[in-house]
Automatic annotation (TrEMBL):
It comes from Pseudomonas lundensis. It holds the Pfam family CheW. This is Chemotaxis protein CheW. Residues 79-225 form the CheW-like domain. GO terms for biological process: chemotaxis; signal transduction. The keyword Transmembrane does not apply. One of its GO terms (cellular component) is cytosol. Transmembrane segments: none annotated. Keywords: Cytoplasm. The keyword Ligase does not apply. It is found in: Cytoplasm.
C-alpha cells in the first residue's frame, strides 16, 4: 500500500463517520438531546467510538506501511529523546524518560528547618505539594552567571519522575524535546572546563550550542539523597 492509497483510505474512513458533534453538538447547533447530560461531546460514547475507529484506521495504515517497507527501518538512525533546557548561561539535556511534564513557573513555598541546601521548598502541582529542588546546588553551577540580553528568560518548571515521587526543578528556559542521534551523543566527552562536571555524561556540540548531557541515574540518585 503506497502513501497515496493510505491517505485515501484514511480520508474515506473519515467521510463514513457521522460527525454529529459538528452538526448537533458543541460545534454545531447544540440540539443533541445527549448534550445536556454530557456537557461536551468529548464525554460522549459516540464521539469516543468515532475517534477510536479513525485511530484504528491510522494504526492499520501504519502497520501496512511498516510491513511493505521493512528495509527503511534498517537505515533509520538510532536516536535518544532528550529535553533541552537552560540554567543561567548553560544549556543542559536530560533523558525525557525522567520527565513527567513541563509546567509554567509556580510559587515556591519555603520550609522551616530545611535539611538540604538543594531543597528550595514545595510547589503546588495540580493540588499536590511537590518538593522543589535547585539544579544550581545539585550540579554545582555558578549562581553568579547572568543571562545575556540576547537570551530569553522564560522560566519553566520541569516535573521530574524521581524514584520517591515527582520533584519540581525550576529552569530559566526550555528549548523543547529533541531526538538526537546516538552517533552525535557518542561524540560527547568531558574536557576543559567540564572535566570535573558532576552528574554529566559528556558535552557535545549541538546546533550552535555547547550542550551538557546529564547522567539521569546519578542525578536522580542525588535528588533522592537531597530529600532524605
Amino acid at each position: 500500500m503506497n502513501g497515496l492509497s493510505a491517505q485515501s483510505l484514511i480520508h474515506t474512513e473519515a467521510q463514513t463517520i457521522d460527525d454529529c458533534w459538528n452538526r448537533i453538538g458543541v460545534y454545531g447547533d447544540k440540539s443533541c438531546p445527549l448534550l445536556p447530560a454530557h456537557i461536551h461531546c468529548r464525554n460522549c460514547s459516540v464521539y469516543a467510538a468515532a475517534a477510536t475507529r479513525l485511530l484504528d484506521r491510522y494504526a492499520f495504515v501504519q502497520d501496512e506501511q511498516d510491513f511493505a517497507a521493512p528495509q527503511d527501518l534498517e537505515h533509520a538512525h538510532a536516536t535518544r529523546s532528550l529535553v533541552v533546557f537552560r540554567m543561567g548561561g548553560e544549556w543542559l539535556a536530560l533523558a525525557t524518560r525522567c520527565l513527567d511534564e513541563v509546567a509554567p513557573l509556580q510559587s515556591i513555598h519555603s520550609l522551616p528547618h530545611q535539611r538540604s541546601r538543594a531543597l528550595m521548598g514545595v510547589a503546588n502541582v495540580r493540588g499536590a505539594l511537590v518538593p522543589c529542588l535547585s539544579l544550581v546546588e545539585l550540579l554545582g553551577l555558578d549562581p553568579t552567571v547572568s543571562v545575556t540580553p540576547a537570551q530569553r528568560v522564560m522560566p519553566r518548571m520541569l516535573i521530574v519522575a524521581a524514584p520517591g515521587g515527582p520533584v519540581v526543578v525550576p529552569v530559566d528556559e526550555v528549548d523543547g524535546i529533541h531526538n538526537i542521534e546516538e552517533r552525535v551523543l557518542n561524540t560527547a566527552s568531558l574536557s576543559g572546563e567540564h572535566a570535573s562536571a558532576i552528574f554529566t555524561r559528556g558535552v557535545l556540540h549541538w546546533k550552535t550550542r555547547s550542550l551538557r548531557w546529564l547522567d539521569e541515574e546519578q542525578l536522580l540518585g542525588a535528588i533522592t539523597r537531597s530529600l532524605t
